[in-house]
Amino acid sequence: MRVKVFSAPSVREALSRIKGELGPEAVILKTEQAKGKVEITAASDVDYPPLQRPGGRTGGIYDALDQIREKLDSISQTLAASPPLNQSPLSKFYLELLGRRIGEEASLQLINNLRKVLSPEADGDELKSQVLSQLSLLLPSEGIRRKPKGPNVVALIGPTGVGKTTTISKLAVSFSLLEKRRVALISIDTFRPAAGEELEEIAQALGIPLQVAKTPGSMGKALRDFRDRDFVFVDTAGHSYQDSDQISELKSFLNRHPPPETHLVLSTATKPEDNLEAWRRFHSIPIQKLLFTKLDETLSPGGMVETIVKTKRPVSYLTNGQRIPEDLWAAESRPLAEIIMGERTL
Length: 346
Ligand SMILES: Nc1nc2c(ncn2[C@@H]2O[C@H](COP(=O)(O)OP(=O)(O)OP(=O)(O)O)[C@@H](O)[C@H]2O)c(=O)[nH]1
Ligand SMILES: [Mg+2]
Hints:
Shape: elongated
Largest sheet: 8 strands, mixed
CATH superfamily of the largest domain: P-loop containing nucleotide triphosphate hydrolases
Bound molecules: guanosine-5'-triphosphate, magnesium ion
Helix content: 40-55%
């Protein structure tokens, strides 16, 4: 048996090299990720050619080569004894993960974690339950920070139209009416005239104060005015993430005391690569959590996984509709994994 490690930027490329070098019958023994690369250990049934000793010579280099050959044989046997990925239920499952738009890197990470905990024959119920447990571990969740001594300032930032203002309204209703907390609202309004008016109605209905901050100074004043509140929710006008000037201006508003806990709001109806690009653009502002909206508008919630794994940020809330406040859900890792695997809906 011949065993070789192939390193390539993507699984597809590694597989095509394996096929070219070891032939179509090659068996995948192990798959690993390393610094933006995929390493696949593959084997074929072609044996190492026996060592030719000119004139039957022994000793020195020939004995050393014999030992190396024995070592290689024993490594091959050990690797061959582990379940080959392309014959196990895990290989089918890997394709399922890709079909659920989980992304190559996160899918490989999940498969590798599963290999550590699953017995080789695991299938059916055991596989499903371990998948959900391992996937939950990749999806941290954490609600809004709750310092006993307020105010807890929470800012929602993100691309245009993802649902920031609607989500602020949901949070305001939920915290003030349902939890009976003292809530105030701030709307940062520099880029779009009358952005604050969108929250006026909800503030009036709830009888909670709203201030519109047009400069970083007026943001500071609003925070001082609201220092006796339990929660202050800060709405920001949407930004095209192409515009780095607007993002630095937003940063100067949020660079205040007490520092807001900032949630990046992303729509699940947006492609994962666009969400990751938004993360890169907004990342000059410290971001503590991710908040995903519009779950009702996507058939592939798996796209969230890649963003969560790559940004290493926990998810605070999910939203799945326009109703205030009904369509707001505190994120939890296990139900999130179940949603992604199509085992439940919100
Ligand atoms: N289907 C669906 N629509 C939503 C959800 N959240 C918000 N919306 C809708 O998305 C649209 C935009 O929502 P906004 O809250 O104004 O979005 P925004 O991020 O504040 O937009 P800008 O301030 O312009 O950046 C509105 O029609 C909302 O009703 C959701 O979870 N599901
Ligand atoms: Mg808005």
